[in-house]
Design brief:
Largest sheet: 2 strands, antiparallel
Number of helices: 5
Strand content: 5-15%
Strand order of the largest sheet: 1-2
Number of domains: 2
Structural class: mainly alpha
Oligomer: single chain
Distance between the termini: 69 Å
Order of helices and strands: HHHHEEH
Length: 109
């Protein structure tokens, strides 16, 4: 490589450093097509299958695993859901009553 650079420099009557700089400039040059025909710069297409509920981010566990919601929408704003009864997981009647109460309160459904 050193010998090649020396020959190229002698052939063009310039320094080895200028030969190296010209190769770097050549490789670093970005063609106009890279800006006009670049798929990475195109708008991201919408994926209809990716539609989600407005509270999906804050109630992710509810939608993934069926846990009770942490947040509910009340009067147009999200607020923390009322605390679970202590026997929520062991008493089906209490669980059903709590879930029904949340259904009535939550406007995001």
């Amino acid at each position: 490589e050193h010998e090649f650079l020396r020959r190229e420099a002698a052939r063009g009557e310039r320094t080895m450093a200028s030969v190296i700089r010209s190769y770097i400039d050549e490789k670093m040059e970005i063609s106009e097509e890279a800006w006009t025909n670049n798929p990475m710069l195109r708008p991201t297409p919408r994926d209809g299958a990716g539609e989600s509920r407005e509270d999906a981010g804050i109630n992710l566990d509810h939608y993934l695993y069926g846990c009770p919601k942490d947040w509910i929408k009340v009067n147009g704003k999200f607020a923390e859901a009322p605390p679970l009864p202590e026997d929520y997981y062991s008493n089906p009647a209490r669980q059903k009553a709590y879930d029904k109460m949340i259904e009535k309160l939550d406007e995001s459904q």
